[in-house]
UniProtKB/TrEMBL annotation:
The protein, known as: histidine kinase
Enzyme Commission number(s) of this protein: 2.7.13.3
Subcellular location: Membrane
Assigned keywords, A-Z: Kinase, Membrane, Phosphoprotein, Transferase, Transmembrane, Transmembrane helix, Two-component regulatory system
All copies of domain HAMP, residue ranges: 244-299
Organism annotation: Alkalicaulis satelles
One GO CC term, this protein: plasma membrane
Length: 528
């Protein structure tokens, strides 16, 4: 059966595109919020550094002395400087802290301003509960995870530092310390610690902290929410569209398949979904082709069964008639003729049943056996050897002559069934050829090194009527010239031959020679 070419498969591109688009939207949102946070932190650090440098410069000018035995910072003067500058350079949610060598804290803007922290205690007898998360901050864990994807190892390490660690590093290295630390309550603190130096001596540090980073980031999380909602909408719409384009067509195909099963052999039209160029259309086309092939096979089986019943009924009717007349035969000669008729019809019935059995098993044999390389010239030579003339035979029959163009004639196929084809063609040719005639078998290659293999079988008989050149390949065709023994053939040989040749991707056709006689041409694909 020749399969139609299926359209290119495009449904996977649609599925991948929907999911990729949702991922791209989420990735854009993640990248945008990360870049915004990175810029926000950088701007915050620069601002805090500028404020801390002002405080450090003023303290260096007014509270740091270079007398013996070495530079020192007057703690009282430094504390007074911080008190005066706190109102100008330390706004709300910010904090400035001074440390002397040790390190020891000598001033804190929160303590200088007299700020009071309040914490609600649980009722008596109840354990303190974890603070509830605001409704607008539900995306905090997701935002935290996203931010960690693009942070460096140094940034992640800085989160674990404490204020004491930061101050100790500033005293030890004499370099500014900048970064985002995590406070005891888990909130993020943007912190800058600058050493207060006179020449190369570090006489103290000023730490400037800001506590409003989490609030600013919370606003960015709302921005991320829009991207997440957009991705969710894309996924939801894509799911609905995929349900419409996949689930519903598959449901229609499944329903049609159940109808085929329940129809009891009656034709049920399969839904035509092949207008769209995707896998569903390809599946629909495949289902239609499959069910058409099944219906054709069922029709062929029914037709074959009807033909078999008709062909078997003829010899059985003849046997029954002869058997009914046999008891009332007038003499031994009539009885002998009736017995001969019965024996002839039994042989005819046996031959018919054998051929029917071979025809019914042919498809299974071809499907079960593996293809093998066949040297067609050798195969035809072996077949021609079966018909070598026997001088002692009463009727030697027609001579079989093999003519080959030479060279390898190799193909892939089933050697047994192909042998049956050529033996059947030679037998038919010898049957219709007169005594002493020749049956010529030729083999040649056409169309180059990987073209076609052409085999012809010619006889010198009466030929085939033009109107029967195609019908002789039908099952149970038994029309033969006058003088041919009736019932000697089942009429299945050429039908089986065409079935075998078609299964090998070839063709077989009948014709007549110009000088008289029939010619059968078999066209087979050569091995590549």
């Amino acid at each position: 059966m020749r399969l139609t070419r299926l359209p290119p498969l495009r449904l996977w591109m649609w599925i991948a595109g929907v999911n990729a688009l949702a991922l791209i939207v989420m990735a854009i949102g993640m990248y945008a919020i990360t870049e915004a946070r990175r810029g926000l932190v950088a701007a915050k650090l620069d601002s805090l550094t500028a404020q801390a440098e002002i405080i450090s410069s003023v303290i260096t000018e007014t509270a740091v002395y270079g007398d013996e035995p070495g530079p020192r910072m007057d703690n009282d003067s430094a504390r007074e400087v911080l008190r005066r500058l706190s109102s100008l350079y330390v706004p709300a949610q910010s904090r400035a802290i001074l440390h002397a060598p040790g390190p020891s804290r000598i001033a804190d803007s929160d303590l200088i301003a007299g700020q009071v922290e309040t914490t609600l205690l649980p009722p008596p007898g109840e354990a303190p509960s974890a603070p509830s998360r605001p409704a607008g901050d539900l995306l905090a864990p997701l935002g935290e995870w996203i931010s960690m994807l693009w942070t460096t190892r140094e940034t992640r390490a800085y989160l674990d530092l404490t204020l004491a660690d930061e101050v100790a590093l500033a005293f030890e290295t004499g370099d500014p310390q900048r970064g985002v630390r995590r406070a005891a309550d888990g909130s993020r603190v943007v912190s800058v610690t600058l050493p207060i130096q006179l020449i190369q001596a570090v006489v103290g540090t000023v730490t400037y902290e800001s506590y409003d980073l989490d609030e600013l980031i919370a606003e960015e999380r709302v921005f991320l929410t829009y991207f997440l909602l957009t991705a969710f909408v894309i996924i939801f719409v894509g799911t609905v569209l995929l349900t419409v384009s996949i689930a519903r067509p598959l449901s229609r195909l499944a329903h049609a398949a159940r109808q085929v099963r329940l129809a009891g052999g009656a034709r049920v039209p399969m839904p035509q979904l092949g207008r769209t160029i995707d896998e569903i259309g390809a599946l629909s086309t495949a289902f239609i082709q499959m069910t058409n092939a099944l219906y054709d096979r069922l029709d062929a089986i029914e037709s074959f069964a009807a033909d078999v019943a008709h062909e078997i009924k003829n010899p059985l009717t003849s046997i029954r008639s002869a058997a009914e007349i046999l008891p009332s035969a007038r003499d031994d000669a009539q009885r002998a003729r009736l017995i001969a008729v019965i024996q002839h019809d039994v042989r005819r019935l046996d031959r018919l049943i054998t051929d029917i059995s071979n025809a019914s098993r042919l498809d299974a044999e071809l499907a079960r056996e593996d293809l093998a390389l066949i040297d067609l010239e050798r195969l035809l030579g072996d077949i021609a050897g079966l018909y070598r003339p026997d001088p002692d035979a009463d009727e030697p029959g027609a001579e079989v002559v093999l003519e080959s163009a030479g060279g390898p004639l190799v193909m892939r196929g089933h050697e047994g069934p192909l042998s049956r084809v050529f033996i059947n063609l030679v037998d038919n040719a010898r049957t219709f050829s007169p005594e002493g005639a020749r049956v010529r078998v030729t083999a040649r290659r056409a169309g180059g090194a990987h073209g076609r293999l052409i085999v012809t079988v010619e006889d010198e008989g009466p030929g085939i009527p033009e109107e029967s050149l195609e019908s002789i390949f039908e099952r149970f065709y038994t029309k033969r010239p006058d003088g041919t023994a009736f019932g000697a053939h089942s009429g299945l040989g050429l039908a089986i031959a065409r079935q075998i040749i078609n299964a090998h991707g070839g063709t077989i056709r009948a014709g007549n020679r110009t000088r008289g006689g029939a010619v059968f041409t078999v066209d087979l694909p050569a091995a590549r």
